[in-house]
TrEMBL record:
<dbReference type="InterPro" id="IPR052184">
    <property type="entry name" value="SDR_enzymes"/>
</dbReference>
<dbReference type="InterPro" id="IPR036291">
    <property type="entry name" value="NAD(P)-bd_dom_sf"/>
</dbReference>
<dbReference type="Pfam" id="PF00106">
    <property type="entry name" value="adh_short"/>
</dbReference>
<comment type="similarity">
    <text>Belongs to the short-chain dehydrogenases/reductases (SDR) family.</text>
</comment>
<protein>
    <submittedName>
        <fullName>SDR family oxidoreductase</fullName>
    </submittedName>
</protein>
<dbReference type="InterPro" id="IPR002347">
    <property type="entry name" value="SDR_fam"/>
</dbReference>
Length: 238
């Protein structure tokens, strides 16, 4: 069954791999990025699947950009919204000091919260009508194991951790508010993945992480709404 997927932050990493695998599987993808001119790999991918991949400019943290994007989308149905666009503020290894006790960059923390927590809420709410046009609407919030309060035994990465923990609360609240509209919401922890953030030593390759996530997503339904899952389909501790 062909579905329409909307993937934010599709210019690199997990978002780009979502587009690649979905397009190869014959799905229709609306792929967004802040700067399409700088998204060379995404543009190449779109040219390979001209009927399957539609590129759109979207800065999820900018209200005007989001409003303009929703207007361009019009009354088009969205079956699956993948709120993937996110910000750490550099890489895990080289920029950790900016989220440390001594070196916390508070302006960065505010930006991370805007991108990782507020933006997914705002976009989901803005696309309610589009989601309701689907027979089985689903919203996937790209969470993180680092957002698990129970599993936090290391400290550090305070800005990123707090933004992803807050995203889980946003997802849970929306799953209750939108239940009557038939919209299913989950948070997905993609695992420690070899992206710019995860680094070369991470457990999962990007393609395997996304393939496993898509396997989990394929089996989700309304009964799963409000869950925090990992790429193996297991519940992650809040």
């Amino acid at each position: 069954m062909t579905r329409t997927w909307l993937v934010t932050g599709a210019n690199r990493g997990i978002g780009l791999e979502y587009v690649r695998q979905l397009a190869a599987a014959g799905q229709r993808v609306i792929a967004t990025a802040r700067d399409l001119e700088a998204a060379g790999q995404l543009s190449t991918l779109a040219s390979r699947y001209p009927e399957g991949v539609r590129l759109e400019t979207l800065d999820v943290a900018d209200a005007d950009s989001l409003t303009a994007f929703v207007q361009r989308l019009g009354d088009e149905a969205v079956d699956v919204l993948v709120n993937n666009a996110g910000l750490y503020g550099g890489s895990w290894n080289s920029d950790a000091q900016r989220q440390s006790l001594e070196g916390m960059d508070y302006a960065l923390w505010e930006e991370i919260l805007r991108v990782n927590t507020i933006a997914p809420f705002r976009l989901t709410v803005a696309l309610r009508a589009n989601l309701r046009r689907s027979a089985q609407p689903l919203v996937v919030m790209m969470g993180s194991d680092l957002g698990s309060i129970s599993a936090n035994t290391m400290g550090q990465s305070h800005a990123y951790r707090s933004s992803k923990a807050a995203l889980n609360m946003v997802m849970k609240g929306l799953s209750i508010d939108l239940a009557g509209e038939g919209i299913t919401l989950v948070s997905m922890a993609p695992g420690w993945t070899r992206t710019d953030l995860g680094g070369a030593a991470a457990t999962w390759s990007v393609d395997e992480s996304v393939a496993r996530q898509l396997d989990v997503i394929a089996g989700l339904g309304p009964v799963d709404s409000g869950r925090f899952l990992n790429l193996l389909g297991e519940d992650v501790a809040w």
